[in-house]
Amino acid sequence: MQSTHYCLHRMPEVRMSDPFVLDDISSIQQRFADLGYVADRALALTLKLAGDLQKPILLEGEAGVGKTEVAKVLADVLDTPLIRLQCYEGLDANHALYEWNYARQILHIRMAEHDAAARATLEATIFDDRFLLNRPLLAAIRHPGPRPAVLLIDEIDRADEEFEAFLLEVLSDYQVTVPEIGTFKAVQPPYVILTSNRTRELNDALKRRCLYLWVDYPGADKEREIILRRLPALDATLAARIATTMQTLRRIDFYKRPGIAETLDWSRALLGLGIAEVTPDVLLDTAGVLLKHRDDIVRLHDADLERLLAGEAPATTTSHQVY
Q1: Which residues make beta-bridge pairs with 178?
Q2: Rounded to an integer, what is the distance from CA 58 to the centroid of its chain?
Q3: Which residues have a Cβ under 8 Å from the Cβ of 25 and sit 6 or more positions away?
Q4: What's the CATH class of domain 4-90+144-214?
Q5: CA 286 to chain centre
Q6: pLDDT band at 173 (very low <50, low <70, confident <90, very high)
């Protein structure tokens, strides 16, 4: 079958006066803040450059520091769909790109058996758009607008290296090829955000196609601001104490240090329980909200919690990241 080049109908161009265009760093920060995400200048600048250069963003960092949330908030800021591809070992192109609706194809074949005219054109019609199931990558490429979709390729480090190689065509030219039909090229390239917990090193060819940003744990002041933006009903003094406690906990050599996701879960838990002060008993009672490994909880029980809550946890740690 001869390959055909497809292009979506061109939508009206988005002008720089459009309030959803990422054209100013401070306004990006403000829009994110309005939705409860405290974006620093480095993140806002990277988002602007991604739009200007039409390049994907690779966000690396520990689990739970807010990488995935960037894509979710960006989709809300742009008022456009979020299309998510969750990566895992063994993920292949068919599950990420497209599949054929075999049930409908078989039904079409059986119906054609009773129609001479349909039988004559059966081979030409069995592989057409009616039977094509768009998976995340193709759905993002074919999104009709009026604004580009946000494509989240989450935890790319969990996928195989072969899948990384497959992504190169998508991230280089924002196009995908369906052998039975042809090539689909986006008129409006999607905003692409890849996240990685760095469980393995990614291929250099993939990295070269991306803007890179390391997302670190927030400082105490930023973490307190995040808590209060997400949970305005929480007492400001308690929010500050939670933020300080989280900073101290992360200085302990846990197997999995708690991230901002755990901070917010813990804050909601304390708010729901009506707790106004963080004490050793409160910390131990709610340890399962913060720590997700038995050995980490045992280590917390063995720690001097009075000193820990006073900010005197060990200052040196052994990193569990894979480099």
Answers
A1: 182
A2: 10
A3: 41, 44, 45, 48
A4: alpha beta
A5: 28
A6: confident
